[in-house]
Every structure is written in C-alpha cells, then in structure tokens.
Amino acid sequence: MGLPRGHLRSFSTAAVRLHRPPSGSISHEVKDKKEWQLELEQQIARGQLALARQVFDRIPAPDARVYNALIRAYSWRGPFHAAIDLYRSMLYFRVPPNKYTFPFVLKACSALADLRAGRTIHAHAAAAGLHTDLFVSAALIDLYIRRARFGPAANVFAKMPTRDVVAWNAMLAGYANHGMYHHAIAHFLDMQDRGGLRPNASTLVSLLPLLAQHEALFQGTSVHAYCLRAYLDQNEEQVLIGTALLDMYAKCKHLVYACRVFHGMPIRNEVTWSALIGGFVLCDRMTEAFNLFKDMLVEGLCFLSATSVASALRVCASLADLRMGTQLHALLAKSGIHADLTAGNSLLSMYAKAGLMNEAMMLFDETAIKDTISYGALLSGYVQNGKAEEAFLVFKKMQACNVQPDIATMVSLIPACSHLAALQHGRCSHGSVIIRGLALETSICNSLIDMYAKCGRIDLSRQVFDKMPARDIVSWNTMIAGYGIHGLGKEATTLFLGMKNQGFAPDDVTFICLIAACSHSGLVTEGKHWFDTMTHKYGILPRMEHYICMVDLLARGGFLDEAYQFIQSMPLKADVRVWGALLGACRIHKNIDLGKQVSRMIQKLGPEGTGNFVLLSNIFSAAGRFDEAAEVRIIQKVKGFKKSPGCSWIEINGSLHAFVGGDQSHPCSPDIYHELDNILVDIKKLGYQADTNFVLQDLEEEEKQKALLYHSEKLAIAFGVLSLNEDKTIFVTKNIRVCGDCHTAIKYMTLVRNRTIIVRDANRFHHCKNGQCSCGDFW
DNA sequence: GTAGGGTTAG
Questions:
Q1: How many Cα atoms occupy the beta-carbon half-sphere of A195 within 13 Å?
Q2: Where is the DYW domain (predicted)?
C-alpha cells in the first residue's frame, strides 16, 4: 500500500522521541506478544493510559491492531495529540493504518480542530482506498464541519456509497452550529426523502436549537409531534430532547408550552431548569424567573449552575434588586462556581447596570480571565452611567490587551460619542467598524445614525441609513428621531410614510419619535393626527411616553389649557414627567398661574429629579417674583435634591473642552473672556439686551448681566470662535437646556462673527445662522 | 440541550 511521500521527514522526530525504552511500574517479566497485548487492553480498560503506554512500548513489533487500541483510547478523552503522535510513529515504523485507525485519529484531529493534520490523514485514507468507509467518512465530515469547511465536508458526504444516520447527523450538526438555517432544513428533509432514514434523538437535538434561534414555532411543533410519535421522549435521551423542546418553545416566547414540556418531564437536570428560567428572562417576566430560580434551589442544590445564576443575576439587574444580587454574589462564592467566566460577567454586568461602577471595576480587576464580554459589560456600564470618557479608556485597554472588540462592543461604544457629541471620536469609531468589516451590520448602523444625528450631522445619519443593506424597526425609528431633534418634522413625516411604503409596521416607539418630531417643529395638528392614527388605525395602546409627547406638543404649541384637559382625560394616572412637560411649557409661555397649579400637582406626586424644581423656580424668577423662586429652591435643598450644574463642551480637533458657568480653569481663559467682552460690545450695537429674567439670583442689574455673560455655553462658543476658522461650524453641547438669554445672544453672535453655531442642549438642536435659529424660538 | 456585554423614545 502506497503512502504519500514526505510524511517520513515531517513525522520522524516525534516518532523517535516516542520510542523510549520502557520504564515505570509494569511487570518486567518476559511475556510473549499475546500476553503483552492482553495487559495493554486491561490497562486501557482501567483507564490507566500512562501504564498502557509503558506496556505498549514493551510489545515487540506492534501491529496495527495494537496501535489502534491505544489510538482509540487516546481519542476517547485525550490526550488527543498523543493519538496523532502515535499515528505518526505507526507510519514511521511502516505499519499500515487500517479502517479502524482512521476514524479515531481523525476524531483526535477534530477535537484539536487540527485541520492540517486532518487533511494529511484524509489523503492517507484516500491512498489506502478507505476514505469512503462509513466511519472514516463520518469522522472526516465532523472534522471539516467543525472548522466550517462545508465544501470538503459535502464532498466526503457525496462520495459515500451508503450513508447512515451518523453521517447525516454530522452534516446537519455542522449546518446547525453555523446557523445555516436553510441548508439545515434542506438537509433534514433530504435525509428522510433521499436517505430514507428516520431522524433520531441526535438529529433533533441538533435541529431544535436552530429552530429556536429562528423562532420557527411551526416547524418546532411538528418536531415535537414527531418526538411523541417516535417515542423519542421516552428513552434515556429524554432529558436532552425535552430540554431542547422546552428551549425551542421558550425562544419562540411560547412559555405556556415550555412550561407544559417542563412539567411533563420525569427527569430534569440543571440544563432543563436553566433553559426555563432563561425563557422567562427572555420574555421579560423577571419576577416569575426569579421565583423559578428559588423553586429550583428548593428542589435541589445540585441544579445550581453558573448558567442559572447568570439568568438570576440578570433578573436582579433588570429589577434593580441589588440586595438579591449581592446575596447571589455570596451564593456564588460559597458554591465555588464564582470563578466561572459567564457567572463572573453576569455579576460584573449587574453591578455596572446598578451604577456601582467602583464595584464593577474591582470585580473586573480581580478576575484573571477576561473576554470580550467582560470588557463589553464594563464599557457599556460606563456609557449607561454617563461616563463616556471612562468608556473610551476601557476600549483602549481592551485593544492594548489584544482583546478583539465585536459588534456588541462597538454598539456600546458609539453612543459614548453621542453623549459627548464628539464628532471626531464618532468618526474614528466609524472608521474602526469599517476596518473590522462591521460597517454594514444593522445594529452598528443604527448606533451610527443616532451618533451622527446627535453630533449635528443629520446628513451623515441619512448617508448611513441609505447605505444599509438591511434595516430593522430601530433603524427607521432612530432616523425619525434624528430628524425630530433637528426640528425637521416634515422630513420625519416623509420618512415615516416611506417606511410604511416599504412594508414596515411602525411600533409604539415609532410614534413616540414621530410625535416628538412634530412637537419640536411646532406641527401641532400633524402630531394630533398621528396620535389618533396610532390608536385607531394601528391599535397601539398609548403608553405614558406617548402622553408625555402629546402634552409637550400641545403645551409647547401654546395650547396650555387643551394640554391640561388632555391630562385630565388620560386613562392613566399622569406621572411627574407628564406634568413636567406642561410645567416646561408654562415657563416658555410665562403662564404663572397654571405653573403654580401644576407645580402643586407635582409636589403631591413627590417630585423625582430636580428638573421640576428648577423649572418652577425659573417661572417665578422670570416673573420677577424672586421671593417665591427662592422659596422653591429652599424646598429643593431641604428635600435633598441637587441641581446638576450646567456644563457645556466643544470638540476642537478631537479634544474635548468643557466649561461650567463662570469657569476660569481653562488655560485660554483670559483670551476667552476678552473675546466674550468684545462680542458683548458688538452684539449690543445690533440691539441685544441682556434678558436678566433668566438670572435666578436676586442680584444688582450689572452683576446679573455678568452672570449671564459667563454662562457655560457662551464660554464654549467664544472658545470656538477663537479656535476654529470662520468657515467651520461651531458645535457646542450643553447638558441642560439653553437659557432664553443665551438663545438670543447666540443668534446675534452668528451675525457679528459671521458664524454658523449649533448648540445641542438637553432637549433639542439649535441650528443658528444669519441671526436665525432653526427652532424658530419654539423650544 | 441552557447562559454573560448592545442600538431607537420622553
């Protein structure tokens, strides 16, 4: 039998090293070959592979049968490389491998995912004419499929003269593991039609997760029916099949069926419990998920696993139940599974979502093994807690440690640029996803659309949107919301109509975006129309968020009484945010009486956050009623609410420069103040008058003007004027709303410095040019 | 067979 040339040279060193003289604790008596062989088989049966090896080395001129016995033992549970080494020495000593050698050595290659060795052995088997053997072929298919080499696997499969269930299953498992839904289904049907075979438990255990992933409830139900007909749910593989079925129903969000399967199972294990708990988590039924977890512990501690704790921790994170979360942390530590990567990452994520970034960071530093998800959990934690700069540091650290960011990492990182309104950072991230080949991923594009919109470049948002190969509902909603914050209500409406034309069904969020867009553009009638359309045509039940938008729309448009009546007629009990929207409009329209009434309502509800106190205080101040304004601020202080300081920032050449009111900490402060004084002189010539109504403190008139002049957004703009060429747009971001005086001043500034100035505040964009603002003073 | 980080709204 001819073996391919060249194998001797590459295999010789390993083979020589392996053939050491015998040593160790086996008997040294003289035995004949048959007796040694018997002892070898005994050692293998006992699982004593080291001793088996010593026996093997005593056997004079071992034949293929002897080699096969040990190779088979190695390929069972490892060490896998020993199986391959032994195969090599077999070739070295010119012992021809046979049809019992190849399946086992190939299995070892498969376990090591060593495609190179596998290909060589494939060639050897072909040379020996054994590559179409049932078992050799099955092992080859498994090897190729594991490394996603579908072509070679299909080739092997096609060349088989007869195929058994194992071969069909190997191919199916490959398609299923790589998420190739259509291939898998076609193969599954082919198996029954052309192959004339009936699916067995392994077939269905491969197929069901794929059906689950694609939420193919109908096919899943047929598989379930087949299991019942074939009594597959009654043999020893019952737990596997049952769990796979349960999980399929859970992933299809059909918890009733999932529970029914669960209760019908005579035997359950930790995977079964985890699958069911995970199903409840998926359907956002958190309390029930947690109760199941508790039931599981009552039924048996043996079910406790890293996976089930991970699900339970997600429940704690979602319910913000930190007390339960820390208890689980202790449970993990006690049960000794705390070192598990998955469980560790869930813990990290729970602390991060709860805003305990110090705890999250400590946990992160303590863990020796970190993967992409660990970094992702920390990174998104920082972004969600408004610490965008820290998020960038995590990203840098990740790259320094050679941990590859994936789609989810980038989807978490890009909003950090939106928070900072840092266009340069955003563009770098965009470049980064292009380099990584992720630029056309739907979720990535969605976050890019949002980022560009919030960084003032709605044109780039639209570019990303137009180039997307596949859009989902989030893509459309994000684009509509983007037009909304830019005050482009008409464009938002056009896009909404385009969305419907392309067959996308709007959801509840779509209407929030759309009505908000109308509100920001003063399109009161249109907004009302879309609210009616939503309820009557699409049957979407309005949520509190929709009512907030509607009150905002009506009240901001000057229909304060209608807004008030609208709140009265709501089927839901209006919360602080609804009244807050009305109060905000009272301030714009300087309606003190209603403002007072509304603020009384808010105080009854117990104000959450500080915004409402500030608004009420502003309303009194604007009316010159400083005593009452001060009183509100005293109540605010007594109740322990802190006003978040106004802060503005501007990005110059990729660096961020932040300012608070009256800030003198910037190195260029003298120049900035000088420029601002000059601007004041110039804009006064055009008729600007400081509107001291917006100064909250009861100061002398001159001091009030100064307090106004050095508002943070004015400082940032002055710095922009100094740092950027005239043709560049000055883009400033403010964490709270721009005050009325600044708004007026900015419009004058565009004239005296001939600039385009965009200010993004907590509410919307102010795109100012030639003395006009895009919001039409409607903000 | 189960599990951990992600995008839109006010």
A1: 21
A2: 687-779
Q: What is the DSSP string of A159-206?
A: H-SS--HHHHHHHHHHHHHTT-HHHHHHHHHHHHHTS-----HHHHHH
Q: How far is the CA of A307 from the C1' of B3 (A)?
A: 4
Peptide bond into A405 cis (omega under 30): no
- Tens-digit pLDDT profile for residues A573-600: 888 888 888 888 887 787 888 888 887 7
Average pLDDT over residues A491-500: 95
Report the C-alpha gap between A297 and A708 in whole angstroms: 62
Separation between Cα atoms, residue A134 and residue A155, nearest integer Å: 14
Q: In the structure, how far is the CA atom of residue A416 from the C1' atom of nucleotide B7, in angstroms? A: 12
Is the CB atom of residue A761 positioned under 7 angstroms from any atom of strand B? no
**Distance separating alpha carbons of residues A385 and A354, to the nearest angstrom:** 9
CA A483 to C1' B8, whole Å: 13
Containing A768, the helix (H) or strand (E) segment is strand A765-769
Contact A140, A131 (CB under 8 A): yes
What are the domain boundaries of chain A?
A: 1-131, 274-369, 370-470, 648-773
In whole angstroms, give the CA distance from residue A3 to residue A197.
36
Nearest nt (C1') to A272 (CA)? Answer: B2
Residue pLDDT, tens place only, A450-477: 999 999 899 999 999 999 999 999 999 9
Whether the beta carbon of A261 falls within 7 A of nucleic chain B: the reply is no
Which residue is nearest to the C1' sugar atom of B6, using CA? A408
A703-742 residues near strand B (Cβ < 7 Å): none
Q: Which nucleotides of strand B are protein-proximal, with an atom < 7 A from a CB?
A: 1-10
Residue A337: CB less than 7 A from any atom in strand B = no
- Which amino acid, one-letter code, is at A298? V
Tell me the per-residue pLDDT of A514-543, one tens digit each, with 9 for 90 and over.
999 999 888 999 999 999 999 999 999 999
List the A655-660 sheet strands across, edge first: A655-660, A647-652, A730-734, A757-760, A765-769, A772-773
Which CATH architecture does the domain made up of A370-470 adopt? Alpha Horseshoe (1.25)
**Separation between Cα atoms, residue A120 and residue A126, nearest integer Å:** 10
| Residue-level pLDDT at A619 | 61
Confidence band of A38 (pLDDT split at 50, 70, 90): confident
Q: Work out if A416's Cβ lies within 7 angstroms of strand B.
A: no
Which nucleotide is the nearest neighbour of A341, by CA and C1'? Answer: B4
